[in-house]
Amino acid sequence: MGNCVGGKGANKKDPKVLTEEEIKLLLDNTRLDRKQIIGLHRNFLKECPTGKLTKKDFIKLFKEVHPSEYKREKADKFCEYVFKVIDCNNLGYISFQDFVLCFSLTSDGDFRQKCEFAFKLYDLDKDGKISKKEMTQVLTALYDLSGITDRKKNNAPAKKVEEIIRKINLTYQHDPANAAAANATAN
């Protein structure tokens, strides 16, 4: 599937049409059956008649799914980060295929796939590294989304990031093969 969650977001076909090739790809890469895929596509087109889920519509759908008023108010930044991971080709929209693959990965993906998705979420500038600043930005968006308002002293996002990095470094200091990965995280 390449570097993107869904892979082939940039193809030139009509985004409203679900091809046999896409169905096969989704059958091979999710736990969905043909009937479920076709039903999801039908529902996707009800919400996105063009076959393209824009960032604005993605945020709107996220807010509809989360009943908490607070989450609806604070979802924008987090949704923007998630949208960028799914729309890795910077097309300005998410295709049905990418949408299904992403949400299948987050619910049914293995540990490595979920870690790769999380890495992409935190690597805001897409340079292949997660900086303290990036980690703090995403953690702040998660705090906002979760309604965490106590952000003083040990609960401050920057303090939590320092704690996470310290734990990563402790975990990998005895494993020289992974030490480089831990050091890259601390930059």
Descriptive report:
The protein has 187 residues and is mainly alpha-helical. The protein is 64% helix and 3% strand. The chain is built from nine helices and two strands. It has helices at 20-29, 34-47, 55-65, 69-86, 96-108, 111-122, 132-146, 157-172, 176-185; strands at 52-54, 93-95. The chain has a two-stranded antiparallel sheet. Helix 3 crosses helix 4 and helix 4 (69-86) packs antiparallel against helix 7 (132-146). The radius of gyration is 18 Å and the shape is globular. The model has no long low-confidence stretch (mean pLDDT 84).
Topology:
Layout: H1 20-29, H2 34-47, E1 52-54, H3 55-65, H4 69-86, E2 93-95, H5 96-108, H6 111-122, H7 132-146, H8 157-172, H9 176-185
Antiparallel strand pairs: 1-2
Keywords:
two-stranded antiparallel sheet, 9 helices, mainly alpha, 187 residues
Main sheet overview = 2 strands, antiparallel
Provide the structure class: mainly alpha
Number of strands: 2
Distance between the termini: 29 Å
The geometry reads as: globular
The share of residues in extended strands comes to under 5%
Please outline what is shown here.
This protein is mainly α and about 190 residues long. Helix 3 crosses helix 4.
